Amino acid sequence: MVNGYAYFKTGSVRAGGSRYTCPGVHKGCKAHLHIDKDDIITLASTQHNHLPRNYVRTNVLAGGSRYTCPSVHKGCKANLHIDKDDIITLASTQHNHPPRNYLQIINETKYITTTKGTRLLMLGEYTYCRGGVRCGGGTRYRCPNVNKGCKARVHVDEAGLIVLAVAQHNHPPHKYMKIRNGLYMKF
What are the entry keywords (predicted)? Predict the structure, then answer.
């Protein structure tokens, strides 16, 4: 589960990792993740062409809606009826399958300003410097070690949400220390 969106395992990637794809792939959604053998995201394309969902809207009932479990194609009959005021009027919550296993991602993202005045994006322990404007709006950030062959990068949309992260680095993270004036000094 990333930013309220669920992903399911669809294959393998190199070095024992796994590929996870958005269930909306059959509707053209291209969001996907690569997870390494230690359950760390190494690649994330999180731009969806739909809203997040736990149930799928299937039809409208007297101004309301009917939602079914995404596993309806596997015979699950769990569903909800919601009236026009968003009140549940009927709920059948008996599923014919165990709940999905969701991988919870803690997104430790912040911006820091160095003593040299440079603003960096910090994702986990790694920092990224601004690398230009992203197609479709937003900002691209790249690892400062790009000239040493590191291809890690992050794309952020106009709202500040990460829409793509290639977070596999070929080096340990740079270390920063916060000093008295609130700026960060590399050590």
Answer: Metal-binding, Zinc, Zinc-finger
